[in-house]
Structure prediction request, 235 residues.
Amino acid sequence: MNTTAGRQAVKEKAARQGMLSAICLLTLLLCMGLVSCAPKKAVVVPTQEGVPLEKALSDLRQVKTLEATLSVDYERGDTIMSGDAGLTLSDTALNLRLYYLGFLAGELKEENGTITVSKPRLDKNRSTLLAQGLRNGFFWWNIRDYTITEDQEQYVLRNKNREILVSKKLMLPTQQSIRLENGDELIITYDMPDQIEEAERIPGSPAWLQYYQSQMKIELKRYLVKVKVKSYVVK
Prediction:
């Protein structure tokens, strides 16, 4: 009788311990979920009002190369394809590597405005969307032969085929439009300012070289690419 009671007590103790472990594990997973799902804290960009636009553009044009890792969503109609990407960008060259489940799934290279590698082969709309959209989206300061107008909140940089809206407060672009040779219009909109990690900045760079827009939406006809920047390095 005592043996039976002892066994029952052991079983009850084990059950209580198992339940306690399960509760602890559930609590841990819940906390991890809350942390991972927490929205990214917005970066407060110090105001750049009063900084001469041409001074900022001159400094930005000192950037020779840009390296970024991206999260990319490509949409056309009801079709959405998502993946990660690595981007290396300079004044004359673009190299975009697309990954799916960690494996290289595609590559796009451009040199001096000409697509040299396209794997798998993309039609003209998609290659233009990616090459011109990413190049001009990130290197927005590469505009030439432009005029400047302004209001209280923004500068407008404009030439015969391009218009860029730049926030006076942030000294960052908020939108730009590019008219292509065939008359189509490429639209880029920006959001979510972020700060370059200290180790990834150009040493001694001014404040307007330390921030960037971490989200872009690039549109051309029925095509749409949404880009989120995971890491950003300028040299």
